[in-house]
Amino acid sequence: MFSVRKATKYRNAFEILELLLNHSVSRSEISEITGLTRTTVGNVVKTFIDLGFVEEKRGKRKNVPGAGRKPIPLEIIPSSLYAIGVGVLRHQAIGCLIDAKGKLLLYEMSPVFEKKNAEEVIKNITHVIDNLLEKANKESLKVKTIGLGIPGPLDPIKGMVLKPPKFSNFENIPLVQLLYDKYGIDVWIENDADMAALGEKRYGGGRTINNLIYIHISEGVGAGIIVDNHLYRGKIGYAGEVGHILLERNGNFVYFEDAYGMDVVIEKAKSEINGNISKLQDITERVKKGDKKAEELIKEIAKDFGLLILSLVHTLGIPDVFIGGKYQLLGDIFIEEIREIVKKYGIFGTKIKIQYSHLGDMAIPLGAASHAVVMYLKKLIIMKEYKTSPKRIFSILY
Amino acid sequence: MFSVRKATKYRNAFEILELLLNHSVSRSEISEITGLTRTTVGNVVKTFIDLGFVEEKRGKRKNVPGAGRKPIPLEIIPSSLYAIGVGVLRHQAIGCLIDAKGKLLLYEMSPVFEKKNAEEVIKNITHVIDNLLEKANKESLKVKTIGLGIPGPLDPIKGMVLKPPKFSNFENIPLVQLLYDKYGIDVWIENDADMAALGEKRYGGGRTINNLIYIHISEGVGAGIIVDNHLYRGKIGYAGEVGHILLERNGNFVYFEDAYGMDVVIEKAKSEINGNISKLQDITERVKKGDKKAEELIKEIAKDFGLLILSLVHTLGIPDVFIGGKYQLLGDIFIEEIREIVKKYGIFGTKIKIQYSHLGDMAIPLGAASHAVVMYLKKLIIMKEYKTSPKRIFSILY
After folding, report:
1. Number of domains in chain A
2. B29 contacts in chain A (CB < 8 Å)
3. Are residues B13 and B53 in the same domain?
């Protein structure tokens, strides 16, 4: 008659897991917050303690006036696992290592890509992971899982990178399998903008808000969307494909990404502006020197980004927007111009807040590492409690 | 440290309510589907039975092989309450009456608006409600609640219609209070496109899908978005404000609604096409008679609607799109042209499905009536179980 909702059985445990990943709370507080019975909470917490990633902080008993026994706060054990996050940019790979509670311990960058082909990209990903693992081993940190944020399209369930644009021969790569074969630990891949949004939410300017849009703009253009503290994926798993929003140009349609990818804009700047232009900063440098053409170019770009951002804000009803990726290099003049347009045409008025990512490209590996911790722990929970087949695990996790 | 998530306490009851509104299930099936304990389910079901809107269908005990006692299906009692839904269009009000299980029993249309001012619009709304109530009374149907779908912007919590465009002096109307004073039962107002999306989901082409976009296009342009079977509201409560997506016209920005509201298009057609044009059908009639200019106009409109629809599909990752409102009158040529564009530029390929609403304008009152049933029952549940103040009830419901 109807299909059982996916993962409902696991929902209670997952909800408590996410609560503990962000807060120190007692069993009774968990029960209060989630509406779950004390028995259910007690059982789930016991599983977490048995699995070795949660502990009672008896020394930190909370004082509750009038109550008899003081509630014992529960906390994730930071050293119970470590995770590596890698962000695959168009020009290099950057990585970080966090503990189970999310504390950033190490970071690492690869050399700059020359060829952008599969061999080189994978070599640099493993370069970053190898270096992080080596440092982790020296300090006896148990790295249990790796998360990667990569330009889409990709298939997170099959672990395949499909065909991200603006690489060279980097397509149909079974990246998860490759890395699992090399390192023997769980690997997760996700869209770069999605991971950046998670990173911004957990570590950056989104820490105190529950809904945000993160627009990642470098060679490609994509958006990660956080709704009620969770990554919004859409039905097809490809929400936020805003690089494929259409612009009208002399009666023809062009994808936003094809009009405003960083490489396209730099080429345009080279032909329109005097001086040596090889990167986005060069354009802002020209503006600072009083170059009117450079200023016009930035305003022209900002205008269409204003249109794109308002399209997202008005569709999603989310007023907090972060701009990340290489476009941050365009600085104040770019974002101020966008703010003007948003102020003029946005129907939510002063509620709309446009800002640059507080983390820059590091948002991607930080988000990917956090994501890996959550996925790894969820997998542990499913395996311990429900002894499910690996295939079924994936249908629950995604 | 963190705020208690809104309505978590009520979540279990609300989840079971929504399950029962759509399915006949036993207590053990509810437990299986929701992951809630049998005790919790038993308590909630007892509350529902005590409140008089759920019953055990003992005659319908399900055969479970090998089991001892057969599980008893639970069902919403159709006659436990009746709800009126009203859709306020730009030219008239249309209404319907449903029972608690959602069965459509009556419908009603007001005269056509002449002045479109507050007095006339409210008079016609009450005309529709009065007629439905009169018929309901004749058959002793207890109407307990009224839902209305109205062009935004509006404030559902304060019950205020703010300033919907393309009316005349229809603004800042405390519509909920006005109708409550007149009828003495709970009244709910919501955005028209949102209610249409709910209507399409429950009664129309969306019955078997969990995610859909409903674009309502008449004088105004708006979208209702269903994510995982629920209305997506966004953080600011104004998701789907797609009439305010910007188009570029000769270097200037124009709101989509201002370029393609029905009234604008008819004016444009009058000046560009021969023959008597006073409504959208007249344009398609001209096309059928071989008028190339009329055909060009429809294709031009369809092109920008294709752009709008792809913007929504790519942002939300939802491939099922329904087009409702007066634009349905543009018929096959309009939607076929949109499908061409979507096929050409859509990155989800053949997954994207564009179709006309199966319900037309009736989607709005049907959605509004369904919404009223849910809100009314949720309010009952909160009041019985938690004896909360009316103000707090609203903070839980929205």
Report:
1. 3
2. none
3. yes
Average pLDDT over residues B150-179: 91
In terms of residue numbers, what domain contains A69?
8-76
Which chain A residue shows the shortest CA-CA distance from B315? A240
Please check the confidence at residue A65 and state whether its pLDDT lies above 70.
no
**Please, which residues bridge with residue B246 across strands?**
B255
CB atoms inside a 10 Å sphere around CB A63: 7
Pair (B68, B95) in one structural domain: no
Indicate the residue among B30, B50, B76 that finishes a domain: B76
Q: What is the pLDDT of residues B165-220, one digit of tens each?
A: 888 888 899 999 999 999 999 999 999 999 999 999 999 999 999 999 999 999 89
Query: Does A1 sit within 8 Å of B238, measured CB to CB?
Result: no
Q: Which letter does DSSP use for residue B117 in this model?
A: S
Residue B3 domain flag: no
In a domain, A3, yes or no: no
> What residues of A are in contact with residue B312 (Cβ under 8 Å)?
315
With residue B354 as reference, give the H or E element that holds it. Answer: strand B353-356
The closest of A95, A101, A88, A98 to A22, measured between CA atoms, is A101
Q: Is the pLDDT of residue A6 over 50?
A: no
Over residues B307-340, the pLDDT tens digits come to: 999 999 999 999 999 999 999 999 999 999 999 9
pLDDT at A246 over 70: yes
Taking the C-alpha atoms of residue B210 and residue A230, their distance in angstroms, rounded to an integer, is: 19
CATH number at residue B23: 1.10.10.10
Same domain for B120 and B180: yes
CB contact at 8 A, A349 and B271:
no
Smallest Cα distance from B130 to chain A, Å: 35
User: What is the Cα gyration radius of chain B?
Assistant: 23
Of B12, B35, B312, the CB nearest to A315: B312
Kindly report the nearest CA distance between residue B184 and chain A, in angstroms. 33
Q: Residue B238 and residue A11: Cβ atoms within 8 Å?
A: no
Dist CA B363 CA B370 (whole Å): 11
The answer on A92 and A70 residing in a single domain is no
* H/E run at residue B55: strand B54-56
* Residue A55 bridge partners (DSSP): A75
Is the CB of B240 less than 8 angstroms away from the CB of A22? Answer: no
Distance (Å) from the alpha carbon of A109 to chain B's nearest alpha carbon: 31
Pinpoint the alpha helices (H) of B254-291.
256-260, 262-272, 280-288
Residue among B12, B315, B347 minimizing CB distance to A312: B315
Its ipTM equals 0.90
Long-range contacts of B156-165 (CB under 8 A, 24+ apart): B156/B188, B156/B189, B156/B190, B156/B237, B156/B398, B157/B394, B157/B398, B159/B187, B159/B189, B161/B189, B164/B220, B165/B219, B165/B220, B165/B257
Quick count: other Cβ atoms within 10 Å of Cβ B228? Answer: 9
Q: Do B345 and A255 touch (CB under 8 A)?
A: yes
Q: Do B311 and A245 touch (CB under 8 A)?
A: yes
Beta-carbon separation of A237 and B310 below 8 A: no
Could you read off the pLDDT of A333-367 as tens digits, one per residue?
999 999 999 999 998 777 899 999 999 999 999 99
